C-alpha cells in the first residue's frame, strides 16, 4: 500500500503553519500523528496535495496546570502523555482512562489529543471524556483565535466546527470542584485494539453533604454521531440524593435518549441496554470516589 | 520531488534521497538495507513494523520518513552489541518465544519501550504493552514469559525514557 504524491511542509511556528494553510486552502491537510490521516490516504479515501506537519510547533505542545483555573493541553500532546500525566490521573481521571484505552502503546505514542477530536469519529475515545469534563478548545486562524466548547466543536461523523484556515491549538479543562470525581467506562468485544461499541464518561460533583449531586455531566460515545450529553439523566440527578433508585432512573433515561445504530459490533437494542448499565456503573463509581474524598482537593 | 534527508538509525547518520510519500518502513528496509523491521498489515494494526523513536514505540508503516529527521531511531539491529544479544533477545530465545520470527523484532522493541518506562511490569501490564503486536504462531504465553524473565535479568536497570 502506497501513499499518493503530496508536498510536505514542517513549519516551526504557528504563524508559519497558518500562512501555509491560507496559501494552499482546500488542497492542504494538517498532519499531526498521522494515525488517522495516513491510514485514510493509504486507503485512497483522501488525496491532499499538501501536508502541513504540526509536530514541530511548540505552541501546540505540553500540559500546563494552573491551580484554581484548570489545565491547558496543547493539541499536539501525545495520547500517551495524557495517559501518564499524574495531574490528569488525579484531577481529570476520566481523560487519563480514555487515553489509556486508545489503540496500542505504539498508536498512543504517535496519536495526538487534537487529532482524536478533529478526526471526529463517533466511536473515538477521548471526546466523551473531554465533554464530560467541560473541555473548551482554542481555534487559531491568521486573524486571531476563538474559544468554543468541545461539545460545539464536534458536529457529526468526521465533521467539526473548524473553518477553512483554522488550526486547533489547545484544550482547556476547568478545575474540577472539590468533592468531585470523573469516570470513563467502555464496552468492546475484545480487550485491546478494538473500536468501542460504546463508551461513557461521567463527571460528578457532590454537594457539601456528600450525599446529593450538585453538578453532573454525562457524555455517551458511539451511540450518536457526536458525543451525546445525557441531559435528561443530568436533570433528575442534579439536586437529588445519590440513591440507587435515582441512579437507576438516570441509566434508563440515558438509554432512552441514546440513538445508536445497528452495525457489525452490536444491534441498536443491545447498545441501548449497555448504555443503561454503563451509566449506572459510572455514576456509582464516581459517587464512591467523590465521597471517599480520593479526589478531594484544597 | 525527492528531498535530501538525514536519518539517525542505531546511532549512525544516513543521508538519503526520499520522496515525501516514502514511508519510514520502506526507507529502512530498502534504502538503508536493514531488513529486521518487518511490514505486515501496513495500516497500524499488527505492530510488525515497530521501531523506537526517541525511545517511544512507533509504527514505521504509518510514519513518513521525511518526518523522522532529527529523531533517534532504533531498529532491532541496534539492540545487540555485536554478537552479544540484548537481555530481552536472550530471554526470547531461552523461553522459546520465537517461531517463524516475523513478529519478533516488533515484539522485542515494544517490550523494550515498556521495560524502559516500567522496569517491573505485572503480567497485565506486559499484555497491555504488547497489545499492538500480533503473533500468529506462539500464542503469546511464551512471549509474556520472556518479557517477564527479561525484566528480572535487567533488574530494573534499563536506561530512563526521554519523555
Ligand atoms: C491501529 C489503530 C488503532 C486505533 N485505535 C483507536 C481507538 O481505540 N480509539 C480512538 O479513538 N482512535 C483510535 N485510532 C484512531 C487515531 O489513532 C486517533 O483518532 C488519533 O487520536 C488521531 O490523532 P493523530 O494525531 O494521529 O491525527 P492525524 O491522523 O494526524 O489527523 C487526524 C485528522 O485531524 C486533523 N487534525 C489533526 N490535528 C489537528 C489540529 N491541531 N488542527 C486542525 N486539524 C487537525 C487532520 O488534518 C486529520 O484530518 C486508532 C488508529 C489506529 C491506526
Ligand atoms: S505493518 Fe505496521 S502495523 Fe502492521
Ligand atoms: S513467531 Fe510467527 S508471528 Fe510471532
Q: What is the CATH class designation of the largest domain in chain A?
A: Alpha Beta
Please give the order of strands in the largest beta sheet of chain A.
Answer: 4-5-10-6-7
Number of discrete domains of chain A: 3
Q: Please report the distance between the alpha carbons of the first and last residues of chain A.
A: 54 Å
The number of helical segments of chain A is: 12
What is the top-level CATH class of the largest domain in chain B? Alpha Beta
Globally, the shape of chain A reads: globular
Looking at the overall shape, the CATH architecture of the largest domain in chain A is 2-Layer Sandwich
- Summed over residues and divided by their number, the pLDDT of chain B gives a mean of 94
Gyration radius of chain A, in Å:
19 Å
Task: Tell me how many strands of chain B there are.
Answer: 5
Strand % of chain B is: 15-25%
| Strand order within the widest beta sheet of chain B | 2-1-5-3-4
Q: Into which percent range does the helicity of residues of chain A fall?
A: 25-40%
Chains forming the largest contact? A-B, 31 and 32 residues
Radius of gyration of chain B: 15 Å
Going by CATH, the architecture of the largest domain in chain B would be Roll
